[in-house]
Write a sequence for this structure.
């Protein structure tokens, strides 16, 4: 029986039953799609290959759980899984904070958690100080979006301004924070 003619749903069921041939068919079918998606997050082709390998390893390791889920659109499921993976990996990378040479000298090498917590506290403090330099309306739009989770349209209604004004406030804040906090982020 030619498994390459099977639907994604049938292939997923076979994978849940430990069918490596079905797994290879799905890998080959969606590899280029995942490359295109991950190219939005990195231009390093070797890194993208590693990410795809990690994603498919996670898929294979969790294959038994696939049977319990009713995945109606496997392609969409895989795309969301891929985007979430890239975002998770990159957010971990962005959270890495540089430690100044003076702090490294005062910290015990065996106790890195103390240094990390000091750096995180310092970064938070610098973040708050940088935000305080911005105009009140700009701060308000940023806080409503980033801390309260409001959409631009809800912020515009609440502040009595246009959506474009909210977009300008938030993009100005992000650009300003990047400039102010560059030394703290890799």
């Amino acid at each position: 029986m030619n498994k390459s003619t099977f639907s994604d749903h049938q292939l997923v069921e076979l994978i849940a039953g430990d069918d490596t041939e079905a797994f290879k068919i799905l890998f080959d079918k969606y590899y280029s799609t995942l490359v295109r998606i991950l190219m939005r997050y990195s231009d390093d082709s070797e890194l993208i290959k590693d990410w795809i390998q990690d994603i498919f390893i996670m898929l294979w390791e969790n294959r038994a759980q696939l049977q319990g889920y009713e995945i109606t659109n496997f392609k969409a499921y895989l795309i969301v899984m891929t985007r979430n993976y890239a975002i998770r990996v990159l957010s971990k990378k962005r959270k890495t904070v540089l430690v100044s040479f003076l702090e490294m000298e005062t910290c015990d090498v065996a106790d890195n958690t103390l240094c990390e917590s000091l750096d995180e506290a310092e970064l938070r403090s610098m973040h708050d100080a940088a935000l305080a330099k911005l105009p009140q309306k700009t701060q308000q739009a940023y806080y409503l979006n980033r801390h309260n989770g409001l959409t631009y349209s809800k912020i515009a209604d609440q502040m009595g301004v246009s959506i474009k004004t909210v977009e300008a406030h938030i993009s100005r804040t992000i650009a300003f924070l990047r400039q102010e906090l560059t030394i703290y982020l890799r």
